[in-house]
Amino acid sequence: MSTATSVSRTPPSFGEEALRAHPGRTGEPAWLGEQRDAAFASYQDLLSRPLDPEEWKRVDLRSFQPGKFRLADASSLSAQFQSLMDTRAEFAGIVSHVDGHRVESRLDPALAARGVLFGSLHELARSHGDLLKEKLFSAVRPDVDRMAAWHSAFLTGGTVLYVPRNVELKAPLYSLIGLDQAGAADFSHTLVILEEGAQATLLEETASTTSDRPGLHVGCVELLVGQGARLRYVQLQNWNQQTFHFAHQKGIVARDASLQWTVGGIGSRLSHVHQDVVLDGPGASGEVNGCTFATHRQLLSYYTQQTHRAVNTHSDLLYKDVLRDEARVVWRGMIRVDPGAQQTDGYQRNDSLLLSPEARADSIPGLEIEADDVRCTHGSTAGRVDEDQIFYLMCRGISRYEAMHMIVEGFFHSIYDRIAVDVVRETLSRSVERKLGIGL
Amino acid sequence: MSSVLKVENLCVSIDEKLILKGVDLEVRQGEIHALMGPNGSGKSTLAYALMGHPKYELVDGRISIDGESLNELEPDARARKGIFLAFQYPVTVPGVKVADFLRHAVTNVRNPNRKEGEGLIPMREFRAELKSRMEELGIEPEFARRYLNDGFSGGEKKRMEILQLAMLRPKFAILDETDSGLDSDAVRFVSEAISRLAGPDMAIIIITHHERLLEFNRPQHTHVLLAGRVVERGDARLAHELHDQGYTGVRQRHPEAAAEEQAAADAGNRQPAAAR
Ligand SMILES: Nc1ncnc2c1ncn2[C@@H]1O[C@H](COP(=O)(O)OP(=O)(O)OP(=O)(O)O)[C@@H](O)[C@H]1O
Ligand SMILES: [Mg+2]
User: Fold this and answer.
1) Nearest CA-CA distance, residue A411 and chain B, Å
2) Domains of chain B
3) Structure ipTM
């Protein structure tokens, strides 16, 4: 199988020597180094085996050559981003990384005084080793699949948020993951830990400094939402169209806790995101919002799972995709209900809007239900922009471009309505607008 | 000085089929015209062609305002020149709120030279204006926040067209069967509303099969279309007469056009048979 062979040989930039010379090793605790070595062994082992066909079947990796990417030695501190969010809101803290190196890290001192941690993974691994050792890779195991193993071995750092018991953060936090140098590879990790009753909002953005330098991101997100806690997490993937994006992401939601997880997929040449939400305790709920806009020859792929492990849990997933040119979006979704997870309510839906005849959307919902007293439903639709709508709007003095924009925004409206954070809504809307401006 | 919309020898085809076969029309700001004709005679086609619908190919002829040709203009540019069409079948646009849509429309039509991305008319002003127009038309305020025509009843859609007319205040308004689908109270209400909107700055071209609209908005000119040609012209009396007596007389007076109408109908009937 082509997808299996294309990444199956270790390129020198990700070989044993590269691992030994990994810049992240300097000053990191021994346990993290040991974890790297173990993950590298898993990585080598997993490379010799095919990728899970169910997950990767529709993702053609032939255009991806890992050997073209390498870890960057240092980042340029003056990197300029077309960041969409960072100046748009009052954030209680900011952490940013460029080419896998920390650039900035700050947190409102009042929150720090209450025990909140928000900073770079490297620093916190040194200062709060016990906490990180326990939680890091607790949701996404390094040997779970090839991408996770690759990520764990070559981890370049990342962003950690820890909110103690019953602490509620009002203002959102912001994390930026940037790529600058041509061929730079980023293996950054996002770890969020909310203790019982805590509340927080983290907005994360991935962005490139240029529109043409190739980049690679092999990321991982772990969201650990404690009992009764509430987390809102947004990740806006906004790389340039020369970047490859692979991510294994998982949220674990404890009893009576809730997670609202919003994914924006705008950039990248090819991206594949494995996104899991696990409802781990009675009364847990998870809402997943996906909003993608693919153009040119982009391929955006999402493999989502909603796993109900306990009684009376609730999950609700809505992905909305807009496609233009020859772009392709693949969504493969699964709701799993464990035996005994009675009175669960699972929902998944994927709608696509095609702006050109060459664009293609694949939508494959699925259910695996092992309990009998549940309500699980799914649906998907795909439609084209209606020329009659465009004509109607144009008859009222609205240009074709504006009409198209209105219709796309209208399509995303049900997602925007669910995201109660203005800055996210505006950011998504602006990136859509910017993208619509190209090639019309 | 009042503007003139001029249509000369307009020939329009849809999918290679010639529908309008040389229509002439001259409408001056402030005038009321009735455009009549049996089903399929080309009234809506004329309306769409005036707006520049991409499917309606202009094979020959000229559309102009005050001598300036509109032939090459996109529908939005025509709207900015002051033409408005109230659709016979208004289109639903899910997710687009009536107020947002109208704010864009009003901004563009009032500032025809606005570039994309330039500011919209101030929110406060716009809201106040929208609110009073809606009140005048008996439209519930919540409609401003609803998605455009989404889930609206037939009558509500027609009112929405008139609301747009009231907000955009065009020089030339074409009302394509705005009275169909309305109950009789609503027809009266809308007819009155239109007569209030009419005035020296607005010309109205009324396409209708009923009399109510014309009672409140008495046309100075009536044009009768048959098989894509204007076969008769007159004043309000002609409209009244057609309403009373139907089109039999018109067909008798214009046997050639009537024959073309018959031939088109036969061709239309044959096609499905051939496909069978
Ligand atoms: N999109 C189209 N494709 C093919 N033929 C069309 C199309 N639209 C209209 N026609 C044809 O053009 C002719 C004129 O139609 P039009 O809708 O202009 O009539 P009308 O006078 O508005 O009729 P009505 O009173 O029923 O609304 C009809 O024969 C119709 O079938
Ligand atoms: Mg008609």
Assistant:
1) 6
2) 4-275 (3.40.50.300)
3) 0.95
